[in-house]
Design brief:
3 domains; two-stranded antiparallel sheet; 56% helix; alpha+beta; Chitinase A, domain 3
Length: 325
């Protein structure tokens, strides 16, 4: 799904901006007996397509972030993401690429823009001791488990009975589990307390297990589909977090960053700040207000360290004056 969306977004953006110079606008794009269609005619029509506004906004944001943070993106990181997309697409990659009308270099350019966007957001994330301590309160270090995922309770009970009778967990993973990860990796999964890809019910039950223990059946209801899946987990390697917060500083910092990046208010305010700093101006009269919803956001979402220092200095001065009085 991710690769298809990537190709679609690129196609729309490239169509909308295939020719944006004044001279190109006047060029004939289509000719027929008795008339012609200019590039401007096509561009004007494309602007009216449903979703065009979003595509243009996306292109502007991506270009702004690429211009500011693109040089910080390593080629190896672009190649890594490109290979992931290619691997996910499998044998259909070339045909999907051809249908989208893009080249590999254009896909890599898009990846670079996305990585630059993430880099830009991360620069606005504030990591301080208060936030780290708050995460620490509910933090459990990374564990490794094997899991079996089943579609109904009846199957789950049968599998649990087999496990209680001593049947090999790995064998049951291959025979019974419906999860993709389970089938491809012997059911092994690693996660910590703030891993978003693992259901909370599974994490909570897993953390209580000692090495080698097998859980009871863990029902997990999907709030979107209203369907319930059933998990059985075997603990491979659990660990206590202890009292040394410094030991997990890197993990805690990453959790703080990820939580901020998943906060839509934070993301919108970050984008607003970057667009303002880049002095974005739309010269096309028909699109003059297209960026307004992104530029004009409520303040106080993203911490500005310089402003904080100024306010702190003003507060100290004010307190000193009151003291003297």
């Amino acid at each position: 799904m991710r690769k298809k969306l990537l190709f679609v977004a690129m196609s729309v953006g490239l169509l909308l901006f295939s020719a944006c110079s004044k001279s190109a606008d006047k060029e004939t794009a289509v000719s027929f007996k008795g008339g012609t269609i200019t590039q401007k005619d096509i561009n004007d029509q494309l602007k009216k397509i449903k979703g065009a506004d979003s595509a243009i906004q996306q292109m502007v944001v991506e270009r702004v972030y690429e211009n500011k943070y693109g040089d910080e993106i390593a080629t190896k990181d672009i190649e890594k993401e490109f290979n992931k997309i290619k691997e996910q697409a499998g044998k259909s990659f070339d045909s999907q690429l051809a249908k989208s009308g893009n080249t590999e270099s254009e896909v890599k350019r898009k990846i670079k823009q996305q990585l630059a966007f993430k880099k830009g957001l991360e620069t606005n994330v504030e990591v301080n001791q208060e936030k780290l301590k708050k995460i620490w309160e509910t933090f459990h270090p990374e564990v490794e488990v094997q899991q079996i995922k089943l579609k109904n309770e009846e199957d789950a009970k049968k599998v649990k009975k087999s496990l209680d009778e001593g049947k090999d967990f790995s064998k049951l993973v291959k025979e019974k589990s419906t999860g993709q990860k389970s089938n491809s990796n012997d059911g092994k999964v690693t996660f910590h307390s703030h891993t978003s890809s693992v259901p909370e019910e599974v994490k909570e039950a897993s953390f209580k297990l000692s090495n080698g223990d097998i859980s009871e059946i863990i029902p997990v209801k999907n709030l979107m589909t209203k369907q319930t899946s059933y998990y059985i987990v075997k603990m491979i390697q659990n660990q206590e977090k202890g009292d040394d917060i410094g030991k997990y500083s890197d993990e805690l910092k990453q959790i703080v960053i990820e939580k901020q990046l998943s906060d839509q208010k934070f993301v919108k305010q970050s984008i607003s700040q970057e667009l303002k700093a880049a002095n974005v101006k739309i010269k096309d009269a028909t699109l003059s207000n297209i960026m307004d919803s992104l530029i004009h956001q409520e303040k106080k979402q993203v911490p500005n360290k310089n402003n904080e220092k100024e306010e702190e200095s003003k507060s100290k001065d004010s307190n000193q004056k009151e003291s003297k009085e």
